[in-house]
Structure formats: structure tokens, C-alpha cells
Task: inverse folding
């Protein structure tokens, strides 16, 4: 890497001035050059405050990390696409692979009673509160290679970089990487099984009886992999006094970073989420013999409800009244964060039964509740008018999470430092984003303060084989985690 023009000019001036002025001693000459060496070190990022040479670790944080993401992306229960659900054969293989990589990074490893994979560096003070870094190893069906996996691999790679430079044992507090066994909730329709157990918010008895589509319970899946249950699951909870904080690196799952042209962004909060299941029951009237004014078609009623939901969430200010339950500020906040979508629609077991699922997300929990209340109220009026039976079940609730300002600032600074080290240029201001997607950090927020770092993904696409992160962005994410860990030295 060639010295910048300003450095070359400074060198020429110093030497020529020393030669022309015989009164300068050899000592004076080197004192004159001293600022030059300082600037060189600063410009090239050659030393940190301890005098240790910086290394960009491309062979670990880029080449190896990308290779591992590709290898992990091929560990699947399906042929031709990626599917890795809670306690499936592929998830066990993936866990074993991650455990081996953790050990390669110099970490002590174990698998807990919920199938979470842990890797820990004790540092200088093992009794200090631990810094936790994690994400999930499970996937949706027909998934991409980066959702969840990126956060785990970046953390392992950063710790390996510390280990390779002889600094892993100099950490002032323990650092623990956790690959959570379930975040997506695909197999048992119950999200955050792994992180909720560690955070101490898992309803153990109810969770163990949850069944997948094949009739296997959570308890059965755990026992099939020689994992004991109930009593041991209750012991998984970490005590708040033992944890300093939790950080998660994740693909953005949105287009903002790509639009601003930067690979990294700090997260200030995660939207609250409610999942509903709506059932509409009517009558299987013969397609040709029941007159239109006497029909009780559940599909038409369901269609009307879905269209109303779209209108409600596009224009909440039109439908919600300003009263004690819903202030004008709440309605205004919904305009910037509210998203309502319909996922699965089913007519099984017959045309007289229609079910569909609704996902409502917003940063304002009061506003989210107001939307659900308004939708439910209108739903019963519409169903009465059409003479069909309707029911709404709440299947999942998670309140919005505000990331810790201190951790967010540290992650933003670490991102800035990482990008500057890699490019040698000032990257400008690192964006601060909101997360509309749910993450393990939501469960972990019940245990400790949380922070998140987003990584640019092409087109904002996730939960798809088209999900993609540039190799250089993987590198930047790993460097950011490394820069964050260096603050703990």
C-alpha cells in the first residue's frame, strides 16, 4: 500500500531540511521524523493503544467465514433446498459443526438441554459478568444461508482472530457465543425456544406438550436426541447477575442499508409482534342451488376480512379514534412502523372452514393492541352480517424491545472502526435502524440489556434461497465484532 501524497511530501521536506542545516544533530533529525512515524501508524491502523499491530484477518474473518457459511448452508434435512428445524437430524449435525468451529477458536464448548450450542472464553476474570453474543442455527423451509448463521459465524471468527493474535485470554470478562436451537418456530410453531429457556421466560410445561405436524411433541424431540427434559430445562435460566449484556449480528432483512450504500448499521429497537389465527365457519351450500342472498360462504367472508385488515393498517388514523386508549402520538408512531400481513390460508378440512394467520408488528405496543382491538371488533360485525361464525386466537405475543443506548453506541463505533480499517477511508455516519423482524434479542431482553448490528443483504431479501451477503460485508461484520470485543480487553 503506497504512502499517501501528504506523507511523501512530509518525508522529502524533513530529509532535505536536515541535510541543508548542519546545526541539526542526528538526534534532532529523528525527533523531526517522529511525527511522521506516528502519522504512518495512525493512517495504516498499524497499532492500537496497547501497541499491538492491527490485523485485518481476511483469512479468518472473510475467506474462512464465507466458506463456513456455505458449508453450514448445505446442512439440511431436505434435498435441493435448505431446511433445518428444531432438533431435526440436520440441526444436530449443524450444532456439532458449530461446536467444532468454536473449539477451533479456543473456546470451551457444550450443548445444553434445549440443544443450544455454547462456546465460552473465560478471560482474565471468570467470575465477572459475561458478554453473550448469539443468533440461531435453525432455518425456515427453503431458506437462505445467512439468516441466523451469519451472526454465529461472525462471533466465532472474531474470537478466533483474538485467539490467533494471543489476546483471547486477555479479555476482562467472559465472552460466550450461543447458537440458539430455535428462533423461527417452524417445527412446533413456538418461537424462541432456545433463547427463551436461557432468558427464563419459557413456559416449560406447556412447551413440552406442543406438537409438530407429525404428532411429535417438543419433549419427544428432545428425548429422541438423548436430552432430558422439564426439570433440567428449568435450570437453563441464566441469572441476571451473571450476564453483562447480549449482542446479536443479523442480516437486515430489509433494503435500507443497500439503499444508503453501507454494509453495517446499528439497531435501536425491535418491533413488537402479535400473531393471530382467524377461523371462519360457514355452510357448504351447493354451488348451483343455494341463492346468493342465502349463502354462507366462509371464503368470501375471509376475503373481506383480509382486505379490511390491509386498509386498517395502511390508514390507521382513519379507523382509530383519539381517546384514552389511543392517543394521537400513538397513531402517528404507527404510521412509521406498522406492518400487517396475512400468511397461511387454509380451507381444510372442507370448504365450510377457512383459517388464516395474521402477523401484526409495530414499535408502539399500545398502538399494536389498538389495531388488534379494532380488527377484532369489525371482524365480528362482518361475520354477523354474512351469517358465518368467526373466532380469533392469539398465537404469539412479543412486546417491542428498545436496544440499550450504550451497547448501540459501542456497536456503531465498532462498525465505524471496522469499515475504516478495511477501506482506509472515513465511511461517514453509520446508520441507526429499526428492526421489523423478530430476533432472539427479544427473548434475551428479559435477561439483560441487548444490542444488535445489522448487515446489508442484497435486495433486502431473506427467508429465501436468494438471500445473499457480499463476502466483503461478511468481513466487515466480523471486523465490527472484533472491534467491539477489543473494547473488553
Result:
Amino acid at each position: 500500500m503506497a504512502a499517501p501524497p501528504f506523507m511523501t511530501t512530509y518525508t522529502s521536506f524533513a530529509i532535505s531540511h536536515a541535510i541543508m542545516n548542519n546545526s541539526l544533530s542526528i538526534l534532532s533529525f529523528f525527533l523531526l521524523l517522529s511525527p511522521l512515524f506516528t502519522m504512518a501508524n495512525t493512517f495504516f491502523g498499524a497499532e492500537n493503544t496497547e501497541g499491538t499491530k492491527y490485523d485485518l484477518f481476511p483469512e479468518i474473518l472473510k475467506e474462512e467465514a464465507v466458506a463456513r457459511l456455505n458449508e453450514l448452508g448445505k446442512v439440511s434435512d431436505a434435498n435441493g433446498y435448505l431446511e433445518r428445524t428444531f432438533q431435526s437430524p440436520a440441526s444436530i449435525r449443524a450444532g456439532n459443526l458449530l461446536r467444532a468451529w468454536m473449539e477451533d477458536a479456543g473456546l470451551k464448548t457444550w450443548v445444553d438441554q434445549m440443544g443450544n450450542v455454547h462456546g465460552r472464553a473465560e478471560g482474565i476474570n471468570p467470575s465477572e459478568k459475561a458478554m453473550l453474543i448469539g443468533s440461531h442455527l435453525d432455518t425456515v423451509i427453503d431458506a437462505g444461508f445467512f439468516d441466523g448463521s451469519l451472526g454465529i459465524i461472525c462471533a466465532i471468527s472474531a474470537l478466533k482472530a483474538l485467539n490467533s493474535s494471543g489476546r483471547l485470554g486477555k479479555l476482562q470478562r467472559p465472552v460466550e457465543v450461543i447458537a440458539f436451537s430455535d428462533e423461527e418456530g417452524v417445527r412446533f410453531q413456538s418461537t424462541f425456544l432456545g433463547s427463551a429457556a436461557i432468558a427464563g421466560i419459557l413456559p416449560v410445561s406447556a412447551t413440552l406438550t406442543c406438537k409438530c405436524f407429525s404428532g411429535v411433541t417438543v419433549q419427544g424431540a428432545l428425548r429422541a436426541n438423548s436430552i432430558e427434559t422439564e426439570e433440567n430445562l428449568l435450570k437453563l435460566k441464566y441469572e441476571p447477575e451473571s450476564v453483562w449484556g447480549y449482542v446479536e449480528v443479523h442480516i437486515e432483512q430489509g433494503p435500507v442499508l443497500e439503499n444508503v450504500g453501507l454494509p453495517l448499521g446499528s439497531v435501536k429497537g425491535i418491533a413488537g409482534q402479535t400473531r393471530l389465527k382467524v377461523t371462519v365457519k360457514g355452510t357448504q351450500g351447493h354451488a348451483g342451488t343455494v341463492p346468493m342472498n342465502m349463502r354462507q360462504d366462509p371464503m368470501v367472508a375471509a376475503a373481506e376480512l383480509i382486505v379490511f385488515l390491509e386498509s386498517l393498517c395502511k390508514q390507521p388514523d382513519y379507523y382509530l379514534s383519539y381517546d384514552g386508549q389511543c392517543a394521537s402520538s400513538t397513531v402517528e408512531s404507527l404510521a412509521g412502523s406498522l406492518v400487517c400481513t396475512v400468511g397461511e390460508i387454509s380451507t381444510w378440512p372442507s370448504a365450510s372452514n377457512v383459517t388464516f394467520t395474521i402477523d401484526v408488528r409495530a414499535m408502539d405496543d399500545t398502538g399494536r393492541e389498538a389495531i388488534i382491538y379494532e380488527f377484532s371488533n369489525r371482524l365480528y360485525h362482518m361475520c354477523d352480517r354474512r351469517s358465518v361464525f368467526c373466532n380469533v386466537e392469539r398465537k404469539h405475543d412479543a412486546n417491542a424491545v428498545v436496544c440499550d443506548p450504550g451497547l448501540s453506541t459501542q456497536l456503531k463505533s465498532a462498525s465505524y472502526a471496522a469499515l475504516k480499517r478495511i477501506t482506509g477511508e472515513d465511511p461517514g455516519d453509520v446508520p441507526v435502524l429499526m428492526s421489523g423482524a423478530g430476533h432472539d434479542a427479544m427473548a434475551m431482553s428479559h435477561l439483560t440489556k441487548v444490542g444488535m448490528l445489522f448487515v446489508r443483504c442484497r435486495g433486502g431479501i431473506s427467508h429465501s434461497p436468494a438471500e445473499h451477503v457480499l463476502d466483503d460485508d461478511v468481513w466487515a461484520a466480523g471486523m465490527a465484532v472484533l472491534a467491539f470485543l477489543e473494547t473488553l480487553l
